[in-house]
Amino acid sequence: MTSIRLPADVEMKLAEIAKLEKRTKSDIIKKALNSYLESYFTRSSPYDLGKDLFGNYGSGQSNLSTDYKKLIKEKIHAKHSH
Questions:
Q1: pTM given for the model
Q2: Residue 1 lies inside a defined structural domain of this protein
């Protein structure tokens, strides 16, 4: 068994919600803790969270970092071929 001390304002909010939902404060705390633990252990890496954004910003092209030499050569060639 674990017991916790809550600040007075949190205790009052918890009591109010428990009364409105007709649930015990313990049930609400358990649900909140389970939700926190579930999200904690299923966290995505920063890369996974932003991978759809990497390489596309502004241009919409995802190959700019890998094909930059080829793209530069094409631009130079197009500029000088006019």
A1: 0.53
A2: no
Judge if 36 and 64 occupy the same domain: no
What DSSP state is assigned to residue 81?
A: T
Q: Do 58 and 39 share a structural domain? A: no
The distance of Cα 33 from the centroid of its chain, to the nearest Å, equals 19
Q: pLDDT > 70: what percent of the chain?
A: 90
**Quick one: DSSP state of residue 63?**
-
Domain that holds residue 25: 7-43
Which residue's entry shows tokens 């060639």?
77
CA angle, residues 35, 29, 34, in degrees to nearest 5: 20
Using DSSP, state whether 80 is helix, strand or coil: helix
Distances (CA, A) of 51 to 45, 55, 61, 77: 10, 9, 14, 32
